[in-house]
Design a protein that fits this description.
The protein is of the alpha+beta class. α3 packs parallel to α5 (130-145), α9 (286-292) crosses α14 and α11 runs parallel beside α12 (452-463). Belongs to the Clp1 family. NOL9/GRC3 subfamily.
Length: 676
C-alpha cells in the first residue's frame, strides 16, 4: 500500500467529518435561520476577516476559507472534499491521533458516520503547516458547539445502537393484527395491564390473571378492564415445554387469521417459555347501553387497543396484588370465610380473587352477598346466595347472575332499619343450610361507623365463620373501631341479640387495603348501582331503544293476581301512579312476616285500569310464581326516564314521601381534575 493510500485509509477511519451545512447529525434539516447563524460563527472562527459581502450563506454548497488560504473545505450533498496544503506529513498524522478518542476511532471502523453520503478525501503530497492544526481544531470545536439541536443527538452511533438493543431486550410483548382482534406474543414475566372489554384465550403457554391461571386447555373468558375500576394485570407464568410441536402452533395461528409474515416474525423470536394470547372483540350489548346512561366514559375510544398505554400510568388505577391474599390457600371445601371492611377498601377485589383461586381447586364456590348497596351478582336492594362456576374478570355489573337464594331488602341504608336488615340476613342463612361441602365466601357491607360494629358482630354470631378477613385502611374513618376478635364480637352483639346456638371459633386475619393507592377517578356507590340496574335491563333494552319503544318485550299482569307493596305510601290515593314507571322487585312472601323472596326485577311500563304492563328479563315460568310487586329504595337512573323520545307527556311519579340520601336525583358528574 502506498503512502497516499495509507493516509486516505487513516482519514476514512479516524476523521469525524461534520455534516453538510444545514444538515444536523441526525440527518434532519436545521431551521434556515439557525443554519445561517451557525455558518456565520464558523466563518468568523476560520477567518479574522469579515465575511465577504459576496458570500452566499443560503447556497446549497458552503465554502469556508481559512486565513491561510491553503486549506479549503467543501461540503456538498454528493461528496465531502478536503483539500490540504502544508509542509509536515508527520505532524499531520500525529495531530489526528491526539484529537480522536479510542472509542470514536473504534466506532468509525464499524459504522460510517453518514452512510448516505459518499466521502472522498483528496490529500496532496505536500508539507503541512502549523496553521492547519489550528484549523482542524476549529473544525472539531464546530462539532462540539452544535449544542442547540444536538445535545441528545450528538451521542455517537454506538450509544444509539446500544440503546436500540436495550429497548429490544426490555420489550416484553409484540402485538399482531388478526381476524376481529389482536394476537399478543408475551416474552417475559413483566406485568401487562389490559384496557377495554374483549374475549381472551391462550394459544400457547399459560398466564395469570386476577388469581386464575389460563392455558391452552382452558375456555375462552370475557375480560372487562374498565376506567373507574382497577385495570386488570396479566402475567406470563409459562415455564416452557420442549415437547410442543411448532406445526400445531403455526396451524393455530393461521386459523386465527395471522398473516404468514407475522407468523415468521413470531417464530424468529419464539422461546419455549413464551406465551401467545388471542384477544378478540366482545360482541356485548350491555356495555354500550350502560355507557349511554352514565356521565363517564369507562371503555377506551379505540376498541382495538387492548393494552394500557404506559404513558397513562400516572393517571389510571392499576390492580395492586397483595401478598397477604395468599390466605386463600388455607380454604378448603368446608371453610366459611367472611370478608369485612369499610367502604372502598377492596372487599370486592379480594372476593373475586378468592373466587378465581378456588375455582382452580373446586368446581363451584358459594358466595353469600350481604351488601344490599353494592351487590356483586345481583341488582342492589337484596341479599343473596349465588353459586359461581366460572372465573370473573370485571366489575360487578359485568357478571350478574340468577342467584340460588335472594331476599329483598327494602332500604339499602341499613342504619335506618337495622333490625329489618338483620332479619333478612338470618332468613337467607336459614335457606343456605342446604348447601353442604362447598367453599363459602361471605361478602359483608362497608358500614363500619356508629353501630355498624354492633350489626356486624350480631351477624358474625349467626354466620359462625371459620375465617374472618378484616381489611384495614390507612384512613381510620373507614375501619371498625376495634379488631373483630371473638371477645369484641360477643361484647358488641348484645345490642341486637346474639345467636344462642353458635359458639365462635374463627381465625381472625388482618389484611392491608390496597385501595389507598388509587390515584385516579373511581366509580362511586351510586354510579355502580346504576350500572348494575342498566346492565340487568340491557338483556331486553339495547342502546337504540327507550322504555316506550314498541320493540321492548312487555308482559301484561292482572292486578287481581298480584299485591302492590310500597311502605312509603301513607294513603291509597294515587297508589297506581306511584308504581308507574318505577322499579319493582318481583317477590313472594316467606314464612317470616314482612320478608320477601326476590325472583327478579321489573319496570312498570304503565298501569291501565286492571292491567299492569311490565318490562323484565325474567322468564314466564318464574313470573308465574310472583305474588307481590314491591317498591324499595332502589330507583331507576334518572337518565332512563329523561332519555330523548318521540313520545310527549308528563313524567310519571317515581317515588313518594321523604327521599333517602341514596335516591336523590343525581347531579351531573364531571371528569376529575388530573394530578399535576
Amino acid at each position: 500500500m502506498s503512502y497516499r493510500e495509507s493516509i486516505i485509509k487513516l482519514l476514512k477511519t479516524e476523521v469525524k467529518v461534520p455534516p453538510p451545512a444545514g444538515i444536523s447529525k441526525s440527518g434532519t434539516k436545521r431551521p434556515r435561520r439557525q443554519k445561517e447563524q451557525k455558518d456565520k460563527k464558523r466563518l468568523k472562527r476560520h477567518s479574522k476577516k469579515k465575511i465577504p459581502p459576496n458570500t452566499s450563506l443560503n447556497s446549497r454548497d458552503k465554502i469556508h476559507s481559512s486565513a491561510d488560504k491553503n486549506l479549503t473545505t467543501v461540503y456538498s450533498d454528493s461528496d465531502i472534499e478536503l483539500n490540504v496544503s502544508s509542509s509536515s506529513e508527520n505532524n499531520w498524522v500525529h495531530k489526528l491521533a491526539t484529537n480522536i478518542s479510542p472509542s470514536k476511532s473504534e466506532l468509525m471502523k464499524e459504522l460510517p458516520l453518514y452512510p448516505d453520503v459518499d466521502t472522498v478525501f483528496h490529500v496532496p503530497n505536500k508539507d503541512l503547516s502549523n496553521d492547519i492544526f489550528s484549523t482542524l481544531d476549529d473544525i472539531a470545536c464546530d462539532e462540539n458547539d452544535d449544542d442547540d439541536d444536538d445535545d441528545d443527538d450528538n451521542l455517537i452511533l454506538e450509544s444509539k445502537s446500544m440503546e436500540v438493543e436495550n429497548k429490544k431486550e426490555e420489550t416484553c410483548i409484540n402485538c399482531y393484527k388478526m381476524n376481529n382482534g389482536k394476537l399478543m406474543h408475551i416474552m417475559n414475566r413483566n406485568n401487562i395491564y389490559l384496557s377495554g372489554s374483549f374475549k381472551l384465550s391462550v394459544i400457547y403457554g399459560s398466564i395469570h390473571l386476577l388469581g386464575y391461571n389460563l392455558s391452552q386447555n382452558t375456555k375462552e373468558v370475557s375480560i372487562f378492564s374498565l376506567r373507574g375500576f382497577s385495570y386488570l394485570c396479566l402475567q406470563n407464568i409459562h415455564e416452557g415445554s420442549k415437547s410442543v410441536s411448532y406445526d400445531i402452533i403455526k396451524s393455530e395461528l393461521y386459523k386465527q387469521g395471522v398473516s404468514k409474515s407475522d407468523v415468521m416474525d413470531i417464530f424468529s423470536k419464539f422461546k419455549f417459555e413464551h406465551s401467545i394470547v388471542v384477544c378478540k372483540q366482545l360482541d356485548n350489548l350491555m356495555l354500550p347501553y350502560v355507557e349511554k346512561h352514565i356521565s363517564q366514559k369507562i371503555s377506551p375510544s379505540n376498541e382495538e387497543d387492548f393494552l394500557l398505554n404506559s404513558s397513562d400510568d400516572k393517571d389510571v388505577n392499576m390492580l395492586q396484588h397483595n401478598t397477604q391474599w395468599a390466605v386463600v390457600d388455607m380454604i378448603d371445601k368446608n371453610s366459611k370465610v367472611m370478608i369485612c371492611g369499610g367502604k372502598g377498601v377492596g372487599k370486592s377485589t379480594l372476593l373475586k380473587y378468592m373466587i378465581n383461586i378456588l375455582l382452580m381447586k373446586y368446581n363451584e364456590v358459594l358466595v353469600i352477598d350481604l351488601d344490599p348497596g353494592q351487590s356483586e351478582f345481583t341488582i342492589p336492594g337484596c341479599v343473596s346466595a349465588t353459586i359461581v362456576k366460572e372465573p370473573i374478570f370485571g366489575p360487578s355489573f359485568t357478571h350478574l347472575q340468577v342467584p340460588e337464594k335472594c331476599i329483598f331488602v327494602e332500604n339499602i341504608d341499613v342504619s335506618l332499619e337495622p333490625d329489618q336488615y338483620i332479619k333478612c340476613v338470618i332468613q337467607l342463612l336459614k335457606q343456605c343450610e342446604e348447601f353442604k361441602e362447598i367453599p363459602t365466601l361471605i361478602n359483608y357491607m362497608g358500614y363500619t361507623q356508629s353501630y355498624g360494629i354492633n350489626i356486624a358482630s350480631t351477624l358474625i354470631t349467626h354466620i359462625s365463620p371459620t375465617h374472618l378477613l378484616q381489611i384495614n385502611s390507612t384512613q381510620q374513618s373507614k375501619n371498625f373501631e376495634k379488631s373483630l376478635t371473638t371477645d369484641v364480637v360477643i361484647e358488641y352483639s348484645n345490642m341486637f341479640g346474639i345467636s344462642e346456638t353458635t359458639s365462635l371459633a374463627y381465625q381472625l386475619i388482618a389484611i392491608d387495603s390496597m385501595s389507598d393507592r388509587l390515584i385516579s377517578w373511581q366509580a362511586q356507590g351510586r354510579t355502580t348501582r346504576e350500572m348494575s340496574i342498566l346492565s340487568y335491563f340491557s338483556q331486553v333494552i339495547d342502546e337504540s331503544l327507550s322504555l316506550t319503544s314498541k320493540k321492548v318485550p312487555l308482559y301484561k299482569i292482572n292486578l287481581e293476581d298480584v299485591t302492590l307493596v310500597c311502605n312509603d305510601l301513607k294513603t291509597t290515593r294515587n297508589k297506581l301512579a306511584v308504581f308507574n314507571a318505577n322499579l319493582v322487585a318481583l317477590c313472594t312472601l316467606t314464612d317470616t312476616d314482612g320478608i320477601y323472596n326476590c325472583h327478579g326485577w321489573g319496570i312498570v311500563r304503565g298501569v291501565n285500569g286492571e292491567i299492569l304492563v311490565l318490562i323484565t328479563p325474567v322468564d314466564e315460568i318464574t313470573l308465574e310464581k310472583v305474588t307481590h310487586l314491591v317498591v324499595g329504595s332502589i330507583t331507576l337512573p334518572a337518565s332512563v326516564l329523561m332519555y330523548e323520545d318521540t313520545n310527549i307527556g308528563l313524567v310519571p311519579y317515581v317515588s313518594l314521601g321523604c327521599r333517602t340520601r341514596f335516591n336523590y336525583i343525581p347531579k351531573r358528574s364531571y371528569l376529575p381534575k388530573r394530578n399535576n
